[in-house]
Amino acid sequence: MIEPILVFGIPVDFILFALTLLGVALFHHHTLPVALTGLGTIIVYKLIFTGFKYGAGVGGLGHHMAHEWVTLANLFLLLMGFALLSRHFEESRIPDEMPALLPDDWKGGLALLCIVFVLSSFLDNIAAALIGGTVARHVFQGKVHIGYLAAIVAASNAGGSGSVVGDTTTTMMWIAGVSPLSVVEAYVAAIVAMLVFAVPASIQQHRYSPIQKDPPKGLKIDPARVFIVAAILVAALAANITANLRFPALLDTIPVLGLAVWAVILLTAGLRSPDWKVMPETFKGTIFLLALVTSASMMPVEKLPLASWQTALGLGFVSAVFDNIPLTALALKQGGYDWGYLAYAVGFGGSMIWFGSSAGVALSNMYPEAKSVGRWITQGWPVAVAYVIGFFVMLAVLGWHADVPLK
């Protein structure tokens, strides 16, 4: 790849990506065209001027996409598949029963966020966020505050940050040889952050639309749909653990997790038909995220600043606008991090903007009104505050213990 062209010391690639993100923030009713236009502009620029990481011209683009396709395919299959899972879960009537199980005041919203946090520690954070969003739609009678939606995403990302099976980035660390015990330290920051953002977000939601006190009469749970939901989640978890422990090479060649989810969806379609009507809108949201992830993967980020707690803190904010998967890969290659801090930063940091994590994009497909950077930041402000407080509490309690560079 040719050295990037600089304008005032900034690579043009980054300027184009920043303009794309600015366009998404300003024109939140037209996010897909903006993201696709940005991706197209970046590709044309790199074809003409700088080439790609793996070569110049169309051949370089082809090699680049061959390297990225598994990640993109997994995201596509998971976002589309978990949208169907959330509809199975909704039609099982379990969400309608939740008012009977949750406290009646603002603590009901807090309890729901805690459930999302726990689910995400062993499930994919997309699934945890969509389950939380589905329950919220029912217990708050369809009126969910954007600040509370941000809290659901934050709870799903926080819950996965300390578990090697809870998030793609922590799984990458596990594959690279980082001990699961090093990653679990992230829960020191994640639990503190959870307490900081969950309480004000729950009170905010209670004032906006209180929790429904009693479930509708005569509800009947659909056991077939409950079985389908459980089967999809178990398949995703089993595929993740089995592939990482027994067949790690497969993870670089086929989208194992996404295929496992879709295998169960299709095999159980005869038992209960999926709600295919959600696919068109979900497809648009999914392509939007894939456009941003592909754009981010083309940025000339070959080197990070020296590993330190300050760098780790900064990576959390970068993760809000920049895909955390390549950031994690670079950090693993560089080494020298305290991996619990990195897991927390790249896992939780994306919660600060709606498109900063796949969980946020998935939930915004369910709640289109959340696709506003301004409203997400102003109404979901406790999330950013929680990120910083959680990080510094972790630093005060555990200190920074840099690991040796990984081979």
Task: Please describe what this structure looks like.
With 407 residues, the protein is an all-alpha fold. The chain has one domain. Helix content is 69%, strand content 1%. The protein has helices at 12-26, 31-50, 57-91, 94-101, 106-120, 125-139, 146-161, 168-175, 180-184, 186-208, 223-246, 256-267, 279-297, 309-318, 324-334, 339-348, 358-366, 373-379, 381-398, and strands at residues 6-7, 10-11. It is globular.
> What is the average per-residue confidence, as pLDDT, rounded to a whole number?
91
How many helix segments? 19
Question: Structural class of the helix and strand makeup?
Answer: mainly alpha
> H/E order of the elements?
EEHHHHHHHHHHHHHHHHHHH
Please summarize the sheet with the most strands. 2 strands, antiparallel
User: What fraction strand?
Assistant: under 5%
For the record, the count of structural domains works out to: 1
The strand order across the widest sheet is: 1-2
Rg from Cα:
21 Å
The portion of residues assigned to helices is: 55-70%
